[in-house]
Design goal:
The chain has 417 residues and is an alpha+beta fold. The protein is built from 10 helices and 19 strands.
């Protein structure tokens, strides 16, 4: 198979198709620390795309409780076991190879799902059973074991940097990977990446329902429709990306799951891609800043090798070894950046879910100091800066301050506007 460059791994890897990249790439950052698992994103997607016959079990967007939950059940554990079987003890990283945009997390020394494939195959994967698709909220809100005797409260409770008893919510959609396993697996070449935005789609006229895309995808986001006999998956709400939403004609806007988010955990956009698949340097693009400058947002299971384009700000209360196997070796740096955010990072975090329109650039206007404290023994200050977001055409689409304004209703209107 050809060699392609995977910047999340910091090296080349084997892939079924030669190097070729879209001009722009659909990408997003999810802040796990803010998620309340209200499932508003899940229902927004469900009510828009998967309410037809044969789609009853399809949840293109889902929120699952880790460490035990998953949809389909234990999808990540099973794929990690396949990699371990193919290369026992070899799924390691070398931090000495860190290099800016081309290897920000060092060099991955293990095997990807493509490199772990048996002779004559393009990938290693598995096909979930019907039973594994039955409960999308399995183990919801289930924590790890409480470290005291039953019926007794812990005398001191939990403290940071990590809890003894913990769980967290993981928000998942199709990652619209740079090197999609579903695309590599399809014998009909029915799956493709759009050159204009990198969105991964299935041509249902070519699909014959072989389900090899389901088997190959380590995130299990392609799903088989038993009624139509073809595979389906998240389409990134591409009509909205194309500017065909009737309320915002001609303007790229966020997908339904992004726009519906109650917890303001999601920020979606388009990033420019270089010839080698790395992101073109764009210092004041909010997604580029979060991933490559602040390094607070990380890919989900980068060791799978698909180079996913959805990134996560890791939860700060979870044991670090668990997070490192899920998000790679950048976890400690990312959590440190989030716990004591720089002045610029704190401002950029305010852009999450402030507008449906995609933000392509931001500008910060300094404000006065409003708070100071110490974090991990070091002084830290908060400033009420103003951050302004601009669309692709350079038009202002949002303006917010770090301190959210408080509005108090007058006494004569306590229960109504």
């Amino acid at each position: 198979m050809p060699d392609v460059y995977n910047w999340q791994l910091g090296r080349k890897m084997t892939y079924r198709f030669p190097e070729r990249h879209s001009r722009w790439q659909f990408a997003a950052v999810f802040n796990i620390n803010r998620c309340i698992a209200c499932q508003t994103c899940t229902m927004a997607c469900k009510s828009t795309w998967t309410h037809a016959r044969g789609q009853e079990y399809m949840w293109w967007n889902n929120v699952e409780s880790k460490p035990y939950g998953g949809y389909p059940h234990f999808w990540d554990v099973k794929t990690l076991e396949l990699l371990e079987q193919a290369n026992p003890g070899g799924q390691t990283w070398t931090l000495a190879g860190r290099d800016g945009r081309r290897a920000p997390y060092g060099v991955y020394g293990g095997k990807t799902i493509f490199e772990a494939a048996p002779r004559g195959q393009d990938y290693v994967g598995y096909l979930p059973t019907d039973d594994e698709w039955r409960a999308p909220n399995l183990y919801e809100d289930t924590s790890t074991a409480y470290p005291t005797r039953p019926g007794r409260y812990h005398p001191t409770g939990e403290t940071l940097p990590q809890h003894r008893t913990w769980f967290f919510y993981l928000q998942r959609i199709c990652n619209h990977c740079t090197y999609p396993a579903c695309l590599a697996a399809c014998p009909r070449n029915a799956i493709y990446k759009r050159p204009e935005d990198g969105i991964v789609l299935i041509d249902q006229r070519r699909c014959r329902g072989y389900r090899q895309c389901v088997e190959a995808c380590p995130y299990k986001k392609p799903m088989f429709n038993a009624f139509t006999r073809v595979a389906e998956k998240c389409i990134a709400c591409y009509p909205r990306i194309e500017g065909r939403d009737p309320l915002h004609p001609g303007v790229p806007i966020e997908a339904r799951c992004m726009a519906a988010c109650v917890g303001k955990i999601r920020l979606q956009g388009l990033v420019r891609v270089d010839a080698d698949g790395t992101w073109v340097e764009d210092r004041y693009h909010p997604l580029y800043f979060l991933v490559h400058v602040a390094r607070v947002a990380l890919p989900l299971y980068p060791q799978f090798g698909t180079q996913p384009n959805v990134y996560y700000i890791p939860p700060r209360w979870v044991p670090r070894p668990y997070l490192r196997q899920m998000f790679g070796p950048g976890v400690d740096e990312a959590i440190a950046a989030y716990v004591a955010p720089s002045r610029e990072l704190l401002a950029v975090l305010q852009l999450f879910r402030t507008t449906k329109r995609m933000i392509f650039r931001y500008r910060i206007t300094p404000g006065r100091k409003v708070f100071e404290t110490t974090i991990d023994g070091k002084p830290w200050a908060m400033y009420n800066d103003t951050i302004v977001g601009f669309d692709r055409a350079g038009r202002e689409v949002v303006r917010v301050t770090v301190e959210e304004p408080v509005f108090v209703r007058p006494r004569q209107h306590l229960n109504t506007i």
